[in-house]
Amino acid sequence: MTRKEQKEERRQQILLTALELFVKRGYHDTKITDIAEAVPMSTGLMFHYFGSKEDLLTELVKMGMRGPGSVEGKVGVSPDVYLLSFLKQMFSFAKDQPWVFNMFVLMGQVRRPGMPEEARKLASSVNALAPTVSLIKKGQKEGLFHKGDPDTMARCFWASVQGIMEEMAVDPEMKYPDPEWIVAILK
Amino acid sequence: MTRKEQKEERRQQILLTALELFVKRGYHDTKITDIAEAVPMSTGLMFHYFGSKEDLLTELVKMGMRGPGSVEGKVGVSPDVYLLSFLKQMFSFAKDQPWVFNMFVLMGQVRRPGMPEEARKLASSVNALAPTVSLIKKGQKEGLFHKGDPDTMARCFWASVQGIMEEMAVDPEMKYPDPEWIVAILK
DNA sequence: TCGTTCATTGAATCTGGATTCAATTTAACA
DNA sequence: TGTTAAATTGAATCCAGATTCAATGAACGA
User: What's CA A175's distance to the chain center, in Å?
Assistant: First the structure.
């Protein structure tokens, strides 16, 4: 089955390359040709591995959904510490595992208007908010977080994180922010 | 000169319509046809007013640059209060002057990769950060804000604001966040 | 070694929109 | 009212990319 493994590896190669380009240049400005060139591989061959540019994006989203992404919150860990460590980990990924970081950014971007419907719906279907909402409620009960609608707070929190991560993705020069700052939105 | 005024008004009409659509659906997914239909006006006529879709975007950016946008910080007002009132104002604009709000969001979006170069460079040229940076330094001196690189802090602050505003722009249902939460990033 | 299947290429299509344009209508102004 | 510039239309054209495809090469099993 070396043949099949070979193919799977090539697929992965394309996915990773596309991920990087999509995040760096934006989906619409990344031509199939650009990805092919970066892999590298002929343009036509891209379609041997993925049915279309949209499919490629969709696959990335699916990959992102399988990933470690979610914020579940373990019992016994206080909510603020938990979110903090999540952010810390994500920032550290930015260094040694850029693809995890990029994936996070992409997942956020795909939800925005103007992105292909299928991928968009998929990405929007994972309600990443829910776990955070209950984490926030818990935090409020414990007096760790300030008052306010937990749902709105959760959205603000992630919207901020998304904004900051995108800033970082676009400008690798940018210094890493202190995760504490971001969690402060809830405190 | 009624003729000229008439034309200017029509131009404005197009700009406002485009602004709304660009923010709601995204630049790439908004076809010239969509704008024309929304104005309403024939497709061809659009090019009587603007040379191209990119020009239209560029004009919007120029308009945004003339606007009230900047955060200057008056002497005598403490930095945190100042930023707070800026956010409050922006949120209230979301209700009665959506175009101001949308413009703010657009200016942020245009800086991102994948947007037309000309508009992108233009929008990036206004260093909106500088005033905030000095505001932050001042705030730190007064002990209002926490320690940290002022530049990074400013970028995080605005990236968060941008993220949250986009969230609001996409989902008008969303409840308004308390501006205090956002300024908390700096405290 | 031979045939078969999968990988690969890149030039030729195809297509969604942006853009153009010749023709038509409108309305300011003499 | 006639003249003329400006507004307007929408169908035809153009073009950047995505997508297809016939041809070629490489590797595997019998």
Answer: 20
For residue B29, what is the nearest residue in chain A, using CA coordinates? Answer: A114
Given an 8 Å threshold on Cβ–Cβ distance, is B112 in contact with A185? no
* pTM for this prediction: 0.93
Which residues of chain A make contact with B170, given a CB cutoff of 8 A? 112-113
Helix axes B79-96, B129-141, angle to 10 degrees: 140
Q: Which residues touch B3 (CB under 8 Å, ≥6 apart)? A: none
* Domain limits, chain B: 3-51, 64-186
| A64-186 fold | Tetracycline Repressor; domain 2 (1.10.357)
d(CA A114, CA A122): 14
Please write the tens of the pLDDT for every residue from B104-115: 999 999 999 999
Q: What is the pLDDT of residues A29-67, one digit of tens each?
A: 999 999 999 999 999 999 999 999 999 999 999 999 987
Alpha-carbon span A30 to A17, nearest angstrom: 11
- Touching A: B residues 84-113, CB under 8 Å: 112-113
